[in-house]
Amino acid sequence: MNLTWSSGVSSATPFAPATNKALPKKRRRFNVVSLKRRAKAGSAGLVKEPKKELSRILRTEAAITGVENKAKSNSHKQLWPKALLEALDDAIKRRRWQSSLEIFALLRKQCWYEPRCQTYAKLLMMLGKCRQPEEASHLFEIMFSEGLKPTVDVYTALVSAYGHSGLLDQALSIVEDMKSVVDCEPDIYTYSILVSCCAKFHRFDLIEHVLAEMLFLGIQCNSVTYNSIIDGYGKAGMFEQMDNTLNDMIENGNCHPDVFTLNSFVGALGKDGQIDKMEKWYDEFQLMGIKPDITTFNLMIKSYGKAGMYKKMKTVMDFMGRRFFTPTVVTYNTVIEVFGKAGEIEKMDQYFLKMKHLGVKPNSITYCSLVSAYSKVGRIDKVESIMRHVDNSGVVLDTPFFNCIISAYGQAGDLKKMSELFMAMRERKCEPDGITFACMIQAYNTHGMTEAAQNLEKMMISAKDNLGIKLIEC
């Protein structure tokens, strides 16, 4: 099909031809959605939560902290199972891998403890997401020492731990080991994780090997497998291979494209600036009966913003309103970032105010974009204002936010404030990274404070082994 953006999927596209009929006014309702922020760029942040939910979170944090303290002591060997298991489960969900391992060590000391493969699988999967393959390998050895026989789920979690860390050869080796263990043959879930990790690190040569192995074993690809490959090709800019994989997916017959497939195409083509193709594929997926979701619209807004097509960006937001898609913190963060990078400070401020007016709570990503934009135009007074907002917001600050604010004051020449923020960063247990040190060293060198810059370099080198720091240009 050779459809253009104006080909008019009338009821489902944000760019259907306008009509002259006056539409009845409807009272728009905005529901506040709670989302958690992720490790990679494009993730969501926190929004308003009910008081009961906030209270539950605070109680959970207190419970985890309490159990952590007991884990460091050798005198707590008779704890209630419910409290200990809930604390472990919450620590795993929050990806606090060090706390999880400490609580698990305490769990193993209890007189009522019985080793279970399910517990190990959860911990291994969490360690994989946190990129801690060495800890995962050690935990796997502990499981053997307790006399447990690994299940398919445990092996698959270990594959994930190595794969997500980029150690693909080790991940493939584990899959080979599974074949020699009775009742532990790798399944579609194992291979889907392996394919996803290969695509993530652009090892498409290994994907061909894995697919051939699956075919030999009679394991058919599912939608997750195809979507992982399509997403990988898209992010690598290999658009012809992305199209071919979609054709294979359709011809497979056992699985069909879905909204994740649509989002991979929209995101990859939009990021590459191929707006016409992005619009064409949006319409193509509509004709397949695949409806967009909030992520689709957020990706389109970002693509139009990057291309400087602000009218189309606004058109998408208007369409979202007509279709009752509630803008999330990601939506507003995207718009704020677009206008901030373009130097459109007034428009950026308007959307920031609108965001708060509608009850969507800004997060650290929001404040990072605002600080970067103000710093770029030399409005350090506005940066001070943002700092007051942050103090009163209760937002959990992270390393990227501190990097942004440290860079802003460093570029403005306020080295005292920059140093104070560096100390505050460490007090809040936000570990500095390569960007933190690079920005501060550059600021000190610019102002002739070579001794301070050298001291900071020494600090960075001493922290390098523990934090994996690399010197990065700020």
From TrEMBL:
Chain positions of PPR repeats: 116-150, 151-181, 187-221, 222-256, 258-292, 293-327, 328-362, 363-397, 398-432
Signal sequence, start to end: none
One Pfam family in the UniProt entry: PPR
Residue stretches of biased makeup (Polar residues): 1-13
Residue stretches in coiled coil: none
Gene3D superfamilies to which the protein is assigned, alphabetical: Tetratricopeptide repeat domain
Keyword set includes Plastid: no
Region named Disordered: 1-20
Cross-referenced InterPro entries: PPR5-like (IPR044179), PPR_rpt (IPR002885), TPR-like_helical_dom_sf (IPR011990)
Top-rank lineage group of the source organism: Eukaryota
Keywords, ordered alphabetically: Repeat
One MF term in the entry's GO annotations: mRNA binding
Similarity-based family: Belongs to the PPR family. P subfamily.
NCBIfam families: PPR
Protein's UniProt name: Pentacotripeptide-repeat region of PRORP domain-containing protein
